[in-house]
Amino acid sequence: MERETTPPRPREGLSRIEIFALSVTLRHYAKVNSSSSEQHYPSIWWFAFGYFACYAPYSSLTKYLSKYCHIAGNELLPLTGFASLVTMVVFLTAMGWWKHAGHRTVLGVRIPFPSIWTFLSGLGSAAVIPTTTLAYTFRGVSIVFMMLLMRGGVLIIAPITDFFSGRKVKWYSWVALALSIASLLSAFFLGSVSYDITLVALVNLAIYLGAYFLRLRFMTRLAKSDDESARTRYFVEEMMVSTPALMIALAVMALFGIGQMGEELAHGFVEPVAHAGSPWTLAAVGLAVLVGVLSSGTGIFGGLILLDKRENTFCVPVNRVSSLLAGVVATYGLWLFLGEKRPPANELIGVGLLLIAIVALSVGPTIDKRRGPPAAKEIEPRPVPRPASDSVAATAPCDTAG
């Protein structure tokens, strides 16, 4: 009798080998997607180097344009601000960081949109940009001395912010803070220092310090943590607010400003484009654009330093020391090439103290790692009291015989 053959039934489900292969594939794509979305920042010292590399030419070129090209500080702001705006857009686009910002749909288009906190922090950052530029245009004031005033104030703000935020401050951060403040005091008590600071310079300093206090408070609350994606989001949202807000403020003051400041801002918007002559020569325009690009670089690297997850008393000295050393390099460059005054000895003593602060900040974490966590004190167990009825049984030898 011929055996009847039945057609093969379609197989239900997957074999074990296919399930294993599918799971490996899914794990691979999940790993790729997660690694592409996560941010892995380099060491804070690389950001410090970038900050230094941008700040040294930025401060020296600003001084050169204001003193030797006879361009007022307010007149510089429109062109340098526009160059900073373009640099910010190019940087965030090249890094592909727009996706990390919060988004909202406006008229059917999804656009990056900041939170209320990053918006306020961006306004504070916008105030830092012009006050920093103007600080180097005051005649008769050394670059290093002006930076000692500005940086010293932020150094004092840092532990205050950590105190209100409840963050623990490491010992080496306290050491660096003390050395940084000592470098500030050396400018006042050692050597001859000019105290001729105008009211305008003091107002400029007050706005600068107030803006930094606002930024540090919001950064500590929202972004200084192990979550690097939160840090990137905060950075992008603050950047997308700060420079546009600056340009809008400058345009409003140029249109409705009264007095010399409004007039100089109006000239800054018109003169570089409408007139090709003194003081806005083609070379001066190019240098002003370069100042704007470098200003944006200091904002980028400086912001990434401050957003490090460690306490403000650590991050702020790293930020301040980098800019102060850059100021010393700029001052020596002006002395060598343009015959400016050489930095006095008291300012160099302050720089030496800051170099020691850098050593403390860089070596301190390594010392803590080698020490390890403090050893727990060994506690001898106390004997447990036994009932009187069990005392004989407890002391009697155990009979194991059968």
Model description:
The chain is mainly α. The chain has one domain (41-365). Helix content is 70%, strand content 2%. Mean pLDDT is 79; it is low at 28-37 and 389-402.
In short:
With 402 residues, this protein is an all-alpha fold. It has one domain (41-365). It is built from 13 helices and 2 strands; from the N terminus they run αααββαααααααααα.
Please specify the SSE layout and strand pairing.
Layout lengths: L15 H22 L6 H24 L5 H23 L7 E4 L2 E4 L3 H20 L7 H23 L5 H19 L9 H24 L5 H29 L3 H15 L7 H25 L5 H27 L6 H27 L19 H5 L7
Antiparallel strand pairs: 1-2
Helix pairs in contact: 2-10, 2-11, 3-4, 3-8, 3-9, 3-10, 4-7, 4-8, 5-6, 5-7, 5-11, 6-11, 6-12, 8-9, 11-12
Looking at this protein, list some descriptive labels.
402 residues, mainly alpha, two-stranded antiparallel sheet, 13 helices, globular
